[in-house]
Amino acid sequence: MNPDEQGNSAQQAQRKLPDNHRNMAWVLLQKYGLVGSLRVLWRDVAWDYFHRVDTAKPVSNTELFNKADAVERNRYVATTFEAFDSALGYLAPRVNFSDGNFVDVGSGKGKVLIAASQYPFRRVKGLEASAVLNQIALRNLTTLGLEATVTATCGDAANIIVDEDDLVFYLFNPFTGAVLEECLQRIANASRERKRYLVYVNPTEHAVYQRYFKLMDTRIFQPGNVEINFYETP
Ligand SMILES: C[S@@+](CC[C@H](N)C(=O)[O-])C[C@H]1O[C@@H](n2cnc3c(N)ncnc32)[C@H](O)[C@@H]1O
Asked: How many CB atoms within 10 Å of residue 47?
């Protein structure tokens, strides 16, 4: 990483662009350990190979967005199936999934959309700022025969339109700054009549979220010490 290019201090750049330019094998080993890495390789990386899709490979935000946008928009890295199932396992006794929609805000290549399609939500929807990633998501959904039941839309989360039925919002630390404020404000504004839930993975911006939503719980899931905050609207 070249912090000068970002116009930021080294620490700020590292925080905003996590792992973007580090060797992924090394990141995996550090995060998951040897056994955990093998699990991820089998359950997520090999899964792509056997299903002829592309979801697991990360993409740096500087490849996806122009320099100015990349300051607030984070890279693509996929949630593991295990972490996703753990998160929904936490919510399942508290939320009736069939009461509404699941929305992945920053849906990338559609990995979480694929995983969420296994749960009884009314609809599964994704919103992704990168047209390149969204094309890959659409291709993945078609390959898996999910194109009729799952929608993946290209757009900026700062302009998110919240539907009456949207119930669970999933955010794997997709963005920060003004985009985050705008997006959370829109979800909060739409929540006066209906209760909504947020699943926030890698919650570095918790201070912002808690201005809009009530924290239900913070959980750490294995493998990988995946930290997830759960919020509800008041
Ligand atoms: C960490 S990835 C998460 C991908 C997916 N949700 C998952 O968990 O597997 C964050 C995603 O948010 C997208 N993103 C960043 N800024 C965005 C914005 N303003 N609007 C919509 N998507 C955005 C990135 O392009 C990236 O695909």
From this structure: 17
Hey, how many other C-beta atoms are within 10 angstroms of the C-beta on 163?
13
Q: Residues with Cβ < 8 Å from 229, sequence gap 6 or more?
A: 198, 199, 200, 203, 206, 209, 215, 217, 218
Q: How many domains does the chain have?
A: 1
Domain with 133 in it: what CATH number? 3.40.50.150
For residue 168, the enclosing domain spans 1-234
d(CA 214, CA 228): 14
Q: Which residues, 6+ apart, have CB-to-CB distance to 106 below 8 Å?
A: 74, 127, 128, 129, 157, 171, 172, 174, 175
Ligand 1 mutation pick, 61, 112, 172, 187, max ligand atoms within 8 A of CB: 172
Q: In a mutational test of the pocket of ligand 1, which residue from 103, 109, 130 has the highest number of ligand atoms less than 8 Å from its CB?
A: 130
Distances (CA, A) of 101 to 63, 73, 113, 126: 31, 24, 11, 11
pLDDT tens, position by position, 126-157: 999 999 999 999 999 999 999 999 999 999 99
Q: Are strands 214-221 and 197-201 parallel, antiparallel or unpaired?
A: unpaired
- Which amino acid appears at position 71 of this protein? V
- pLDDT tens digits, residue range 175-214? 999 999 999 999 999 998 899 999 999 999 999 999 999 9
Residue 139 is given by DSSP the state H
